[in-house]
Design goal:
Layout: H1 10-32, H2 38-53, H3 60-70, H4 72-98, H5 103-122, H6 124-130, H7 135-148, H8 150-167, H9 174-201, H10 214-220
Length: 221
């Protein structure tokens, strides 16, 4: 029986990971309550999720608040950028549903907007968490990475959509969303991003080389 609760057992590792995800989700909710800090909170959550995905040791609370404080300046503008992108796509499809004439134009515009904005935002938070770069460059890099790894990025988008749909399926499943939903989805994105970043870092002159990694900055300090 003791073997099940050994630090090396699969049950122990699963429960430890589950605790980390729930803790991270609650921290994200707490720091997102001012609304304008959602971007900074998401960057901080991505910083912790990248560590989890790569199996690096750390303290969830300490690492989260440290990353939150360091990324507050970029996080607040990202809140508005993300909101504008989401609203723009939503409005396009709303106009498509309401329009009696030229509705096809709204449909095409909505699809193009969803494509560009979706892939520009897909990796932007992990990029901001990992590399020192401007918001504009990070958005461009996210889109370029999505195009370079299109099938992998498309699979990630489908998985994220599926996870969100499952958690929003009913009032019962929405409990999962409150407890661990965002952190679980964020960990999924960062797990994909971590593998891609490692691959790109081995190739001189690729996208991530446009800025120093936060990891390297910590080591230098």
């Amino acid at each position: 029986m003791a073997g099940f609760f050994s630090p090396d057992s699969k049950l122990y590792r699963f429960m430890s990971r589950l605790t980390d995800v729930v803790t991270l989700n609650l921290l994200w909710i707490l720091c997102s309550l001012p609304i304008v800090t959602i971007g900074a909170s998401t960057i901080a959550a991505s910083s912790v999720s990248l560590r989890i995905a790569e199996g690096r040791e750390g303290y969830i609370g300490r690492d989260f608040f440290k990353a939150f404080k360091e990324n507050l300046k970029q996080g607040i503008p990202m809140t508005f950028i993300t909101a504008i992108c989401v609203c723009a796509v939503w409005l396009d499809f709303q106009m498509f549903s309401a329009a009696e004439e030229n509705s096809l134009l709204f449909l095409i515009t909505g699809i193009i907007a969803a494509y560009v904005f979706g892939f520009s935002l897909l990796y932007v938070y992990p990029l901001l968490a990992r590399y020192e770069n401007t918001i504009l460059n990070s958005l461009k890099n996210s889109f370029q990475i999505s195009m370079r790894y299109f099938l992998r990025s498309l699979l990630l988008a489908v998985i994220v959509a599926f996870e969100a749909a499952v958690m929003l399926w009913s009032l019962q499943t929405m409990i999962l969303l409150v407890l661990a939903g965002f952190a679980f989805i964020n960990l999924t994105v960062c797990s994909f991003a971590s593998v891609i970043f490692r691959e790109l870092e081995k190739i001189p002159g690729t996208v991530p080389d446009s800025g120093d990694t936060a990891e390297n900055s910590e080591e230098e300090n």
